[in-house]
């Protein structure tokens, strides 16, 4: 599961909390232009809010810290999985006291020359006066649509949408066969777009720009969904960068 820092981060996430985890509507992902430390930061305007670390380099695990420095406690992490180490297992804090951490395999599949990344996460659901939770599936898909262009960054980026049709079990079959998280059966039509991001242009330090839109911007999907959207955005960006730095 990676090196000592990654293992320690995953251990600490068991004791972390989603309480008070909030994100502004728009965020910018920035990095040290030296590219030596491979640490990334999420900014809102000029204010750094959260920091990410890639302790084993571009091809290793991703750790998100609950504050602007690496001295803050870990909040979420993504580790490599599978024989090819191209699988992505996301770990989030428990939904509440006494509950287990959220651990989700982010599956991927090809569509033409692009990859699509899919994950499931519990979201709130109102039943009369009571709030329950349901597990809903979402996917990141490459896009050059209006939502991405409205970011005024690179003209082609990614959109996060609801999966509106049945999603066949991406891990059917043996554990070894599906351990890298690759989905083989998939049925979907375009659902509501909830977030978008695009690579930054004309900038030395800025890596990408992210925005919650539609229902994704209202907070109605809950803290776990918002955190999952953010950490998977950065993970997909990391996977894209692996192609560039090879």
TrEMBL record:
It comes from the Eukaryota. This is Uncharacterized protein.
